[in-house]
Inverse folding.
């Protein structure tokens, strides 16, 4: 590695950034801007949910078609996540993340221009091209900027960011931005402009990996990358995390995309349902920030099992409960929805053979499989709602998947807890 000129961040062979004296705060600035970008990612994910009724009416979309729309970007993730993960390892985070965020901004703008089911479906699907840059990039950025003992807190904060974005969406879309913009289309344009502004800031402060780091990450070419991925997938922790992620995403995306509509069946109006949905996402953000840092290595699989079981009960309760029990279901679903993702990534980062160096590659596979569930969750709820007139069959399927996942994560391999 060249040493004759200063670099702001130097990347070791294992993917860890070292910081010159006096520039320690620089990594927190970089991390903070990335967190704001990830919140913008969350805004894009949640931007449709508060407007399901007017969008469906304006574009003449059925519940089943809306379910397909809500899950469309997850399907695109299947084809893009692995390659985005390789791109992050090969071309660096600054350039790859900036390009992906501009695609997300375009997705938001095209939603505001959509005229029918097909064009709206395409605009939402476009998000899946750019979205993986943060899903995969945030764990990689944390693994790169922070040491093993420091990672839990920033990883939790980073993963909480999309839910903070969804709090903004559910809390402000109908109550503040809709009166300001005049229509749901105008709100989409506002969100797109905000993402562009954040991307320009990222381009200024994003990490510039040291020369040669990208070439090392891609050594061996495509054949070497495929062989490496197969070797990684043979690790028990990677196999469980990647396959279980589909179940986790089915529950999380399915429940969150339809939560406002489910609450409206319990006598809440659009604004009230939006506030409760925002509260649920606030709990998701709080849970992912606090829970992972409190769980020591060696105990994560047990906490994961309990959280997933709680999540299953919560999503089922959203459809079948009323009154105070419904409030408890919102609490359970929100608080347990996101922390499992952070705990899974901490297990993966600490798994021998993965670490910061290959978390981009593993993360790409993780999200590629996870988004099978990310599509299936919203779609199954919408499809079964069309056929049965009830949310219960759809959320019943998701709750059953959650119970299976709770059993699976108990088989993760972790180091023995320190005495």
């Amino acid at each position: 590695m060249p040493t004759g000129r200063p670099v702001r961040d130097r990347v070791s062979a294992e993917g860890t950034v070292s910081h010159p004296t006096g520039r320690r705060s620089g990594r927190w600035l970089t991390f903070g801007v990335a967190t704001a970008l990830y919140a913008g990612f969350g805004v894009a994910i949640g931007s449709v949910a508060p407007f399901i009724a007017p969008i469906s009416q304006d574009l003449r979309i059925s519940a089943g078609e809306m379910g397909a729309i809500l899950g469309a970007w997850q399907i695109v993730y299947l084809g893009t996540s692995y390659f985005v993960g390789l791109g992050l390892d090969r071309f660096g985070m600054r350039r790859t993340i900036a390009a992906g965020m501009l695609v997300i901004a375009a997705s938001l703008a095209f939603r505001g221009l959509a005229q029918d089911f097909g064009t709206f479906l395409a605009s939402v699907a476009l998000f899946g091209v750019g979205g993986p840059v943060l899903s995969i990039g945030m764990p990689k950025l944390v693994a790169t900027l922070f040491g093993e003992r420091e990672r839990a807190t920033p990883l939790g904060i980073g993963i909480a960011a999309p839910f903070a974005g969804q709090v903004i969406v559910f809390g402000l879309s109908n109550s503040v931005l809709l009166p300001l913009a005049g229509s749901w289309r105008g709100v989409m344009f506002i969100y797109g402009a905000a993402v562009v502004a954040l991307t320009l800031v990222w381009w200024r402060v994003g990490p510039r990996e040291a020369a040669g780091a990208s070439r090392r990450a891609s050594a061996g070419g495509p054949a070497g990358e495929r062989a490496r991925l197969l070797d990684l997938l043979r690790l028990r922790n990677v196999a469980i995390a990647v396959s279980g992620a589909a179940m986790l995403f089915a529950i999380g995306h399915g429940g969150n995309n339809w939560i406002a509509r489910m609450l409206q069946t319990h006598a809440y109006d659009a604004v009230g349902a939006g506030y409760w949905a925002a509260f649920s996402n606030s709990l998701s953000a709080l849970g992912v920030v606090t829970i992972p840092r409190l769980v020591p290595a060696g105990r994560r699989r047990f906490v994961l099992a309990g959280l997933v079981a709680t999540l299953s009960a919560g999503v089922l309760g959203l459809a079948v409960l009323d009154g105070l029990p419904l409030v408890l279901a919102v609490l359970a679903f929100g608080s347990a929805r996101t922390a499992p993702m952070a705990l899974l990534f901490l297990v993966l980062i600490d798994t021998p053979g993965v670490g910061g160096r290959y978390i981009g590659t593993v993360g790409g596979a993780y999200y590629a499989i996870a988004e099978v569930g990310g599509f299936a969750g919203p779609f199954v709820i919408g499809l079964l709602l069309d056929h049965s007139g009830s949310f219960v069959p759809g959320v019943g399927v998701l709750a059953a998947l959650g119970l299976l996942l709770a059993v699976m994560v108990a088989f993760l391999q972790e180091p023995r807890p320190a005495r």
Observations:
- Confidence is low (pLDDT under 50) at residues 1-22, 211-218.
- The chain has one domain: 24-207+223-409.
- The radius of gyration is 21 Å.
